[in-house]
Every structure is written in C-alpha cells, then in structure tokens.
C-alpha cells in the first residue's frame, strides 16, 4: 500500500513535466502524502514498539524494584560501550559534514554531548575505556546498524537513527511508576528530562518528500527495534 502510493506520487511528478494541467493535482497528492509533522509521525507510527518495550521483563522488574543487580550491571556495561562507540561515529560525522549549517551544528552539538556524557560515565565507574567490553549480539547489531547508516545514507538519516534512543528513554522513564526508595529510581530521574524535541526542526525541514519520509521511517523503526532488543536481552 505504502509502496503503491509512493510510485503513484513519482508517476504524477513525472507526468507533470509534460502535462502542466496536472500541476495542481500533483501538489495536492504530495501534501497529503508528507505528514505535517514528520517528527511526530515517526514516533506515532512506531509507538507499538515503545509499548512493547515498556512491558519487557527488564523494565517491569526495574519498575517493581526486583530486577537482579547482575542484570543491571550487564545492561550498564553494554550502555557504556554504546555511548563510547556512537561518540566515535559522531566525531567522524562532525568532521565530515560541513553543510548545511544547521545539520552540521546539530551533529557538532550531539558529538559534544555524547562525548561529555561518555567521559563522565567512564569516570563514574573508574574506567579508562571500553576496549575490553564485548558487545552482546543485540548490542553488536545495534552498533553495526549505526555504522551502516552512517556509511550508506545521507547524514539526515543518521540524525533519524539517533532519535529512538533519545525519545524512547525519556518516554520509558516518564512511564515507569517508581517510588523514591526503589533501587533503580536514579535511572528514572536521570532519563526523565531529555529533550528529544530538539530533533524536530531538522527532521521536519529536510524530510520533505514521501520518499524521504518512507526511508526515515524504515531507519527509525529499525533503531526502535534495536532499542527494544537491547532491553529484551538485558
Ligand atoms: C504507518 O504509516 C504507514 C504509511 O503512511 C501507514 O500506512 C500505517 O497505517 C501507519 N501505521 C500506524 C500504526 O500508524
Ligand atoms: C551477564 O552477561 C554475561 C555475558 O553475556 C552472561 O553470561 C550472564 O548470564 C549475564 N548475567 C545476567 C544476570 O544476566
Ligand atoms: C563499534 O561497535 C561495532 C560493533 O560491535 C564494532 O564493529 C566497532 O569496531 C566499534 N567501534 C569502535 C570505535 O569501538
């Protein structure tokens, strides 16, 4: 269904080069096809994954405070490796992408915040680096997917690929009911106040055709699934 709509839009755009009478119809179809708010569309189109994630054993047990500490330790070790690994990708992207200016600025800002977060996380656990951490299969796949997106797609899709982490964790933290003496309350507090809406202007500006929105949705869904699978295997 999605595909046939897409090819229909392409067909109409194509014909309108020849038949000027179709110009009005073409813009009507495109306005219908591209959501007004792509940032919101990506989240709502994949919200079933966020709801499935919230129901996973790891988060349910965190919520009730009876998650075995060893599982949380494993999760934290993987998370540190994730942060350091994605920081390295962001550093490469920051060096590579010089324009458009707003995209370049965004990547620079993300790199700085990932880097600072990674450094403070490493310091908090007295670690010099992550080279001895073996990624679990789920984390290995997630990180390879990031690298593949960076290598094969336009930089805007790397921005899309980072949004599931930003948006899902804030949503999960806000949707976990924990009382103050829950052993895991700090995870909720630390993750409740992120600002995923900072992604919104860029996504809504650059994902301006049905084709780009479809591609973004594929990337977004894949990375939502990777987040889900990280929690599911933790
Ligand atoms: C997701 O988007 C596609 C394409 O626009 C649409 O066909 C589908 O119904 C949407 N699904 C949900 C759950 O919103
Ligand atoms: C922690 O990770 C190791 C290595 O993957 C695994 O063998 C162990 O069972 C995990 N511990 C828990 C409590 O899940
Ligand atoms: C990031 O993780 C991937 C997948 O595990 C790995 O292949 C790559 O070498 C890692 N990058 C760095 C800088 O550690």
TrEMBL record:
<feature type="signal peptide">
    <location>
        <begin position="1"/>
        <end position="21"/>
    </location>
</feature>
<dbReference type="GO" id="GO:0005829">
    <property type="term" value="C:cytosol"/>
</dbReference>
<protein>
    <submittedName>
        <fullName>Uncharacterized protein</fullName>
    </submittedName>
</protein>
<keyword id="KW-0732">Signal</keyword>
<dbReference type="InterPro" id="IPR016084">
    <property type="entry name" value="Haem_Oase-like_multi-hlx"/>
</dbReference>
<dbReference type="InterPro" id="IPR050967">
    <property type="entry name" value="Thiamine_Salvage_TenA"/>
</dbReference>
